[in-house]
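Service request form, structural biology core

Requester: graduate student, group of Dr. S.
Request type: structure prediction, single chain
Budget code: on file
Notes: please return the result as structure tokens.

Sequence provided:
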Amino acid sequence: MAADFFGLVWDALEESEPKIKTEKTLALFDRFKAGEFEDFTKDGIVNVQQKPSYAALCEIARPTEVRRRRKLDTDEGKAVFLHAITHIEYSAIDLGLDACYSFRGLPKEFYFDWLEVAAEECEHFLMLERLLNKVGAKYGDFTVHPSLFEACRKSDTLIKRMAAIPRFLEAGGLDANKKMTAKIAKLKDETAKEILDALSVILRDEIDHVKKGTKWFYYACEKDGVDESRYFEIVESVLPNSTKPKEFVNVEDRLKAGFKCEEIKRLVGKENIPC
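Core staff response, request fulfilled:
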């Protein structure tokens, strides 16, 4: 009897305990690479997560109510900072798994790509969790917000999901990473160096994740007969008022991730951006 790929993805997606969740996800990717899964056309009911898997671990609040980092030169400040990034990476595991689970009948490459993303997000989470433990904290110690989960639920078609999640929200992480790196680089302690190393790994992988989003966004556009120039319109349909000009855009890494110069100019709201 063939293994139930979607059932196994759902099982990993619903798991809340980080150690078990990462083990299930990494094992599933290993099985995929070993050629255990071939049928991605399963009919029937597609479940929808009613609450994020981390709800069992964390107190959830609105973004404005989440504690902000203050001084990064203290363990407490580093803990708040690291917890926020660790939460993003935990959420990103679920985003990769949910993409695999929610959309059926797509090329095998699609499921490989997003399971690979989920596996790499597991590695990011575990790396950050170790650093979080090193400064005396653990995942779940601080309040978190559900913004990524909510955006996932609102993007219920492939074209919306690829535009709003990897190609908009996760792409924003390319910008944030560069800004965070500049702040942490001012510190000279050992933990700060380890955080910088972690941010470097995350940036390297996230460029590829966003690039995958670009690839499958273009695929969805072609499949739906939609011009790819409607990218911002599609993002706005999922995340209203989100595409206003940004103060800072990581031009170099967005280009690597498949963004066009015209899109970057639109993001910044200026025509004289060198790209």
